[in-house]
Amino acid sequence: MKLNMPIKYLIFYVFMSALGVLSFIMFGHYLSMVLEDIVIEGAAPAADALVWIALFFILYALLSALYKVVGARVANRRIEALTHRVVSRIDDQTRKHSESMLNAIFVHLEKYRPFEKVFIPTVIQTAVKITVIIAAMFLIHRNAAFIMLFTAPFVPLYYVLVGLRTKDESEAQAAQFDELGTLFLNLIRGKNTVKYTGAENTVIAKLKQYNESYVRETMHILKYAFQSTLMLEFITILGIGLIALEVGLQIIIFDGITFYAAFFTLLLAPEFYNALKVLGIEFHNGKLSQGHLERIEEWLDTASDRSDYRTFDASTQSVALRNVSIGHGQGMLLENVDMALPKTGFVAITGPSGIGKSTFIRTLLGLHRPETGTVALSEEGVGYISDEVYFSDTTIHEYVSDGEYEEADVVRILDQLGLMDSLDNLEEGINTPIVNHNIPLSGGEIVRLKMARVLIRRPRIILMDEPTEFLDATTEALIMEHLAELKQEAAIVAVVHRRKLLKIADRHYTFSNRQITLAKGES
Question: Which ranges of 152-258 would DSSP assign to H, the alpha helix?
Fold first, then answer.
């Protein structure tokens, strides 16, 4: 099985495992010496030997604990990196696969975690442990070493055969879970449609079908797990029993082994077979986890594998488009557009509804990949104001500050936008919770709240989609005043419908005939 682990981690795991098993062997060595002195010689144990026993036992325990901690941290770091790979593939083109994406992140990643956290460290630790123990056994009692060599392969051989079958079952189970989760999420979204079309019986039957299929795959996996555990215990008991029988015959009949060697052998044999047993169990779990990894990789393969079409260079204009085309086939919105926007100033964009203005803004944000071309931005931190921003499970203060600004700063920007009078009337003020998009503000106040989130940060590039929609004349004048001030130090690109905003615009572009052109009378 491919571990897919960087060499630096493999070397560290091997080193830690070797130290751990050598500590255990040294513990067994001194313990066997002390017991031989007591049982055979009838002498009191030496003080220095007792000290060594305690020292190596503590060292073994510490190394075992440290190994688990390091393994968990490495696993978390690698899972985090894999999560970033999944998240980085989320764009406008993959929103229709949102259910699969959510399953990939929240279900399959967590079910894959044991592979990184437990399986890989266990495989390496077991391989090192059995190698060192067999090497030590050839020096302590050669016959026991040969018995170990003869019986040990039965465990991995059995688990390779079972594990391959388990992997297939796990992939089927993961696929069934994805289908069940996707169906459930779609039903939640379309619950009203189901209700009003009288499709309850059809939906119930479909859910029952997916549920039964998922349960069936799960039961198959549990069956293999039970059979594997039973066979593993049998092989382990048989191996330890053979070694115990051989040692007993050597002591009683042949008188060919010392008490030291006999006790040391019987101490190391269970450790050897227990390591194989743990490996067998984890091999089964590892194959289950691998099935979930393949579902993640399958999703990544279906997502866009093209590199980011956006670049960032502080020396460029605020926004520079090179040969950008947006749309596809007969539905092209823009074709082969080249344009550059200055680092400061207000750029207004107008055009008929549905011509592609909002899609253009989303392209600048990195949320909609163009058919061709690249977009260069002077800053990575871009402010965005749109009516599509979703509020959930936060407070007004947390939404505006995003954990970066103190309450006084938030109050100041909200007051400048004329929101504090309304917020002071709420029982919890700016700490009022927002749950499931339920926010006690009017449409115009929500627009200002979204603007507050951007204006408090004062980014160098601000993108807006109809920024003054739903605002009354007084509030619109207030927003325009802020934008007029902000444009002195930032580039503001705004899709506008209300003509008043054109008064503060430094440039006015219009959409027509799949092009963006300066409005008449501008240069």
Answer: 154-189, 191-197, 200-249
Helix count and strand count (H, E) for the chain: 16, 12
Q: Count other C-beta atoms under 10 Å from residue 218's C-beta.
A: 15
Task: Name all contacts of 481-488 with Cβ < 8 Å and 24+ positions apart.
Answer: 482/416, 482/417, 482/451, 482/455, 483/346, 484/346, 486/455, 486/458, 486/462, 487/344, 487/345, 487/346, 488/344
- Which amino acid does the sequence have at 289? S
Distance CA 321, CA 298 (A): 33
Residues 480/500, Cβ–Cβ less than 8 Å: yes
10 Å CB burial of residue 327 (0-12, 13-18, 19+) is middle
As a whole number of angstroms, the distance between CA 334 and CA 416 comes to: 38
The span from the CA of 42 to the CA of 28, in Å, is: 20
Cβ neighbours of residue 86 closer than 8 Å, sequence gap 6 or more: 101, 104, 105, 109, 296, 299, 300
Tell me if the pTM is above 0.85: no
Segment 214-232 mean pLDDT: 65
First to last CA, the chain: 65
- State the Cα–Cα distance between residues 451 and 384, nearest whole angstrom: 8
Asked which of 51-55, 72-76, 204-208 is least confident by mean pLDDT, the reply is 204-208
CB 445 within 8 A of CB 473: no
Domains and CATH numbers, the chain: 7-302 (1.20.1560.10), 311-518 (3.40.50.300)
Closest CA to 490 of 360, 339, 379: 379
**Helical H segments across 303-437, by residue range:** 357-365, 396-401, 407-416, 420-424
> What letter does residue 67 receive in the DSSP assignment?
H
Above 60 in pLDDT, residue 165? Answer: no
Would you list the DSSP string of 84-99? HHHHHT-SGGGGGGHH
Contacts of 342 by beta carbon, 8 Å cutoff, 6+ apart: 317, 318, 491, 506, 507
- DSSP element (H, E) containing 109: helix 109-114
How many Cβ atoms are within 10 Å of 508's Cβ, its own excluded? Answer: 18
Q: What is the C-alpha to C-alpha distance for residues 231 and 159, in angstroms, rounded to an integer?
A: 10
| pLDDT value of position 126 | 87
Query: What token pair was written down for 432?
Result: 């009022």
Report the distance separating Cα 269 and Cα 28, nearest Å.
11
Q: Which residues contact 229 (CB under 8 A, 6 or more apart)?
A: 281
**DSSP codes joined into one string, 151-173:** HTTHHHHHHHHHHHHHHHHHHHH
As a whole number of angstroms, the distance between CA 186 and CA 97 comes to: 11
For residue 254, pLDDT beyond 70: yes
The type of residue at 433 is P
Per-residue pLDDT at 57: 93
The answer to whether the CB of 511 falls within 8 A of the CB of 355 is yes
